[in-house]
UniProtKB/TrEMBL annotation:
Organism per entry: Streptomyces populi
Family designation: Belongs to the short-chain dehydrogenases/reductases (SDR) family.
GO molecular function per UniProt: oxidoreductase activity
InterPro entries on file: KR_dom, NAD(P)-bd_dom_sf, Sc_DH/Rdtase_CS, SDR, SDR_fam
Keyword Hydrolase among UniProt keywords: no
The protein's name: Beta-ketoacyl-ACP reductase
Source lineage: Bacteria, Bacillati, Actinomycetota, Actinomycetes, Kitasatosporales
Keywords recorded for this protein, A-Z: Oxidoreductase
Keyword Membrane appears in the UniProt entry: no
Gene3D superfamilies: NAD(P)-binding Rossmann-like Domain
Length: 255
C-alpha cells in the first residue's frame, strides 16, 4: 500500500538498473514515488526495471548518464526537474569497485573509483539542491559500504571513496538540515549482486556466520529514510550487514 504522503514525490536513483539500486527503485515505486533511474551502460537491464515497475502500477523513467561527468549530471537533473517540476529524493547508489593492492594501483584507476563513487554523489547532490531548497524538503541517501571501516586488502580506493562519502553525508547534513533536507547514509555488508557475484560464488558463506544479504535487505531502510517519519534522522550512517561488523572473529562468536 503506498505511503499516502509519498504519492506525487519524485526520486532519482543512480545505478538503478540492477542490484541494490534496482531493489531501491522497486521499493520507492511501490511506496508511490515516481522513480527516475540512472545507469551508464546497462540499458537493457534498466528497461527491465522500468517495465516491472509499470507492470506493478508504478511510474519509472530510465536515463543514461555517467554520474562522474559534470555536464551529464547537470543535464540529467535538468531533464528530471523539467519533466516533473520537482525532485524530492536522491539515492546516490551507483559505484564501481576495482580492487588491487595500493602498491601497484595506477593513478588513473584510483581516480576512476573516486570519480564515480565520491565525485559522482557530490555532483548529483549539488545539482538537486536548488530544487530541494526551493521545496524546503528533500532526502539524500548515500550508499556507502562496510569497507569504509573494515576494508579488505586491495580496497584502498574503494574504502577511501566510501569513507569520503560518509564524511560528505555529515558535511552536507550540517549545511542543509535547517532547510528541511535530510542527508543520511546506508552502509551494506556483503550483498549478492553483479558487483559481488564472483566473490560470493567463490567464498560461499565466508565463515563469520552471517549470510550473504539480498538487495531487498537494503532497500527497506533506504525507503524508510525517504519518508516524513524519518525527519529526526540526520547525518547518520547505518550499517546493514546481518551483524558482521560486531563479530570480531568466528572464535569469539562460538564461546
Ligand atoms: N554488493 C555489495 O556487496 C555491496 C556492499 C557494500 C556496498 N555496496 C554498494 O551498494 C551500491 C550498489 O552496489 P551493487 O552491488 O548493487 O552494484 P552493481 O550490481 O555493480 O550495480 C552498480 C550500478 O551502478 C551503475 N553505475 C556504475 N557506474 C556508473 C556511472 N559512472 N554512472 C552511472 N551509473 C553507474 C551501474 O550501471 P552500468 O552498469 O550501466 O554502469 C549499475 O546500475 C554501490 O554503491 C556499492 O558500493 C554494495
Amino acid at each position: 500500500m503506498p505511503e499516502p504522503a509519498a504519492v506525487g514525490r519524485v526520486a532519482l536513483v543512480t545505478g538503478g538498473s540492477r542490484g541494490i539500486g534496482a531493489a531501491v527503485s522497486y521499493r520507492l515505486a511501490a511506496d508511490g514515488l515516481a522513480v527516475h533511474l540512472v545507469c551508464r551502460s546497462a540499458v537493457e537491464a534498466g528497461r527491465g526495471v522500468v517495465k516491472e515497475i509499470e507492470a506493478a502500477g508504478g511510474r519509472a523513467v530510465l536515463h543514461r548518464a555517467d554520474i562522474g561527468d559534470e555536464t551529464e549530471v547537470e543535464r540529467l537533473v535538468e531533464r528530471v526537474t523539467a519533466q516533473e517540476g520537482a525532485l524530492h529524493v536522491l539515492v546516490n547508489n551507483a559505484a564501481v569497485i576495482d580492487d588491487q593492492l595500493l602498491a601497484v594501483t595506477r593513478t588513473d584507476r584510483w581516480e576512476n573509483v573516486l570519480r564515480t563513487n565520491l565525485t559522482g554523489p557530490f555532483l548529483t547532490s549539488r545539482a538537486v539542491l536548488p530544487t530541494m531548497l526551493d521545496q524546503g524538503w528533500g532526502r539524500v541517501i548515500n550508499i556507502s559500504s562496510n569497507s569504509a571501516r573494515t576494508p579488505g586488502p586491495g580496497q584502498s580506493a574503494y574504502a577511501a571513496s566510501k569513507g569520503g562519502l560518509e564524511a560528505l553525508t555529515r558535511a552536507l547534513a550540517v549545511e542543509v538540515g535547517h532547510k528541511g533536507i535530510r542527508v543520511n547514509c546506508v552502509a551494506p555488508g556483503k550483498i549478492r549482486t553483479e558487483m559481488t557475484a564472483a566473490v560470493a560464488d567463490r567464498l560461499g558463506s565466508d565463515g563469520d556466520g552471517t549470510r550473504w544479504g539480498l538487495p531487498e535487505d537494503i532497500s527497506g531502510l533506504v525507503a524508510f529514510l525517504t519518508r516524513d517519519e524519518a525527519d529526526y534522522i540526520q547525518g547518520q550512517t547505518f550499517t546493514v550487514d546481518g551483524g558482521r561488523m560486531i563479530m570480531r572473529s568466528p572464535g569469539r562468536r562460538s564461546r
